[in-house]
Amino acid sequence: MDLSQLSIFDTANPLQYNLLTVTPSGIYCAAGEFYLDPKKPVAHAVVSHAHSDHAVKNNKNIYCTAPTKDLMNIRNPNKKSTEVFHVKEYGSPFYINDVRITLYPAGHMLGSAMVLMEYDGIKYLYTGDFKLQPDASCEPIEIVSADVLMTETTFANPRHIHPDADLEIQKLNNLDARNILIGTYAIGKAQRITHLALKNCPDKIVMIHTSIIPFHHLYKAHNYDLGNWLPYSRNLFKLSDNCIYIVPPYIYHRYKDNSKFHSTFATGWDWFYKSASVRLHISDHADWQDLQVLVEKVSPKKILTVHGDGRHLQYHYSMQGIDVGILN
Fold this sequence. Notes:
This protein is an alpha/beta fold and 328 residues long. Helix content is 21%, strand content 25%.
């Protein structure tokens, strides 16, 4: 089978969901001549959010929210000058050729969007990455109905149930008196952890690695004040025993085994905690229960899975008579 142009829809189905195809460059909409979160630079890219696995640089035309544009520009200072951003507001429809597109908040991080596409009387909803948990560092998710749901399945397994993030980070208050190193991704997660730490650990000094600070400033520019954090100070970190230092992955992996301080990585993946002082299970993705809520509210006739393992979702909904196609 030639996977370069694989139809992701069952043509035997009386309702022909044939808007999209999978190509080496990503998910392609022929009617609109655009890609959803392309894997390679393309002429027209609808970008759900600014993480690097969804927002490659050097696309010619980029359709996204204003925060996503600003975050991508910080991430990619050496991008080509030929990039053109078409900034779109949540809830305001626009057209690319004959396809009507509306962006809705995905709750994943600042500026993240779900993409509703309407064509030939059929609605298609692409989630990008999303979460339902409350998060004061970004826009709350807004779920809309659609005929076809294309969802991420990062944690689409019944064993993945994310705990309450406030309760998770409060664990740091119970550690013995040593500074705490928290590894986290620089965009989205670092800002959420900063806000959670300042909210739930009021006696701690929260310091930020220099490479993350530009993103913190950008969040504030978009009216998301993360609190009274400080840039990293080596002297303060050495003289104190009540600091939380938030760092990117490469710094965390360099110092995580240093016994002078506690170390943990904020993630939903269990394997990160093998050498950690404490488990900090905080994820910015949907868990198994969130996916059930999503499907209930979208009420799709067909489900497609991307970015993860869709087999559990396929089995679960096949029992309910909903067709689930696995794309990854």
